[in-house]
Amino acid sequence: MLNRVLVCRCWAASQTSRAVDKVDILVKVVRTLLGDIPPGEMGITDCHEHLIRSGGPEIAESQDYLLNDVDKAVQEFDLFVQSGGKAVVAMDPIGCGRDVAAMLEVARRVSGHILLTTGFHRGELYDNRHHWVMTCSVDQVAEMLIAEIEEGLDLHSYNGPIVERVPAKAGLIKAGTSYLKVTEFERRALQAAALAQSATGAPIVTHTGGGTMALEQVEILRGHGADVSKVIVGHMHRNPDPVYNRRVLATGANLGYDTCRFKYYSENFLVSLLLDLVKAGYQRQIVLGHDAGTRGYQKAWGAGVGLDYLLTQFVPRLRSEGMPEDAIDDILVNNPARVFAIEDKSSTCAEEAVHSV
Ligand SMILES: [Zn+2]
């Protein structure tokens, strides 16, 4: 499955215009901050993380959200690598303290891969009247997301009025909803995310409020053309109801359990839920993360847990409680590699057809 070579859109046209001794191909890649890599190189992946947050509305709530130290981000990433990790998906979107320059510095100094998101968080973190998500058309919003995936991230994270793109590109799209509701801002952001995914193939990773409105998210995304097999519905550990989680999985979407430590519930809830879902046949639709979004979750800032916790504590516990090894491989490696893989539009025609028609 990994590194699969796909026939591209122009293949059909090529048949009519010339002899079919050549086939146009597109290769799937994972879009990291330092460039595209083969999905097979992604390795063990933390699918929801925070390394740098240098501003944004959450910091007004608490200074604990301020993650403004490149050295500490590198230290934290190194802990993850030392415990066997390879790739981290950074989930700070537009308008929430995303710092492209600092993230690029971190990416250059670590020995693993970092993917950075475009898109939006839950609506209450934005001005729901004057923000451009509300004043522009959904198509226009989608164009801005597409540009970050295909042309380059805006150094200023669309804080405006200047847009200054760097060569590094976004590898995914974030969208979010509130606890028990989908606001108009959130609906528009989800719709734009779906349109941007349709255009680019980039995955969508969502924030759910308390693990609610997951089915509504999937419905909105699907309604605007998203491929839900490339959607990770996030924070589902916050709602560890096996029946509800299975209903979301039955849509074909992937679920992200991204706080694999005691917070909303003790860890045994998540361990039981994961064992239950794997037993039910859903091991290909589950990913994990640590979501160390504050200083209080990172050793580099003095906390008792860090980015290594997922692999040094939680996964060994899963293993000790009976999680099959092939399921752990799927959850940590194979599923992220599949979901985060996108078609490399820059790949050129191959002389030799790798594809058998
Ligand atoms: Zn987060």
Structural commentary:
- Strand 9, helix 9 (242-249) and strand 10 (254-257) form a beta-alpha-beta unit.
- This protein starts with a strand and ends in a 13-residue tail after the last strand.
- The chain is 36% helix and 16% strand.
- Helix 3 crosses helix 4 and helix 6 packs across helix 7 (184-200).
- The radius of gyration is 20 Å and the shape is globular.
- The protein has a single domain, classed as TIM Barrel (Alpha-Beta Barrel).
- It has 12 helices and 12 strands.
- By secondary structure, it is an alpha/beta fold.
- Mean pLDDT is 91; it is low at 1-24 and 348-357.
- An 8-stranded parallel beta sheet has the order 4-5-6-7-8-9-10-11. Strands 1, 2, 3 and 12 form a 4-stranded antiparallel beta sheet that branches.
- It binds zinc ion (ZN).
- Zinc ion is lined by residues 48, 50, 91, 291, 293.
Observed structural traits:
357 residues, alpha/beta, TIM Barrel, eight-stranded parallel beta sheet, 12 helices, globular, disordered N terminus, disordered C terminus
